[in-house]
């Protein structure tokens, strides 16, 4: 069975490339190159790019890139019903892809062979003195204020039928469910699924996808990992000082455990900084919970009503 290894990038149509570039620079992503009209952004990690802005495309999600382990996996991917042939990637780092459409209409690109870059300088994660466990002695805590976005961590996707999309991702991508979300009070009516890559005994992120019910195929948010909790808070203060539109945070999620902070980009699309997310290996079974507000966060500001909209209104 084909098994994707990780999420690698997203492609978004943007209304104003310069505005998006300025926002992403404040958010912690660096423009790498402009090629074929698209602008490619990297983080501090080794991926050649993790966000692609396309001013010629309609505003919103255009594709999610998922990494395959082996070149031979591309041949298997090309046999998915409706898949494209194997194509060369005309993008920084080269590589090849197969384009597929997930049940519900979500565009995916299964990729292999994109050349990695040297990681950028970043500060080390902080050693924390917990109440009963002390990890730092004779060393004051003076973290440098940096916006080190490391990588794309996950995408929260919307489809009219999340059960069909879950089944498709299990069958064709080898993904597994971490948590299933039920309509409150229901026993078999699902609102969504947190899904992770199946790497066997190697831990993977609690979710690379959240597949949730929505009126149309699209995205609820994309999420980028930072070094630690201090980095999320420092980024929060920086983004506020730059006048960007805040949405929700800082707080800690229940499912996945991430410390989160959500912002609106210039096109009204939701984007998240996070740190300290859960990792699971394949032995951890799925849980089923009711999709109530209590399952969204353990601490932080109240959930805004607009959190359940796909895009910013007004």
UniProtKB/TrEMBL annotation:
Top-level division of the source organism's lineage: Bacteria
SUPFAM superfamilies reported in the protein's UniProt record: Glyoxalase/Bleomycin resistance protein/Dihydroxybiphenyl dioxygenase
InterPro entries: Glyas_Bleomycin-R_OHBP_Dase (IPR029068), Glyas_Fos-R_dOase_dom (IPR004360), VOC_core (IPR037523)
VOC domain ranges (all copies): 6-113, 151-276
Protein name: VOC family protein
Organism whose genome encodes this protein: Pseudaquabacterium inlustre
Origin organism lineage: Bacteria, Pseudomonadati, Pseudomonadota, Betaproteobacteria, Burkholderiales
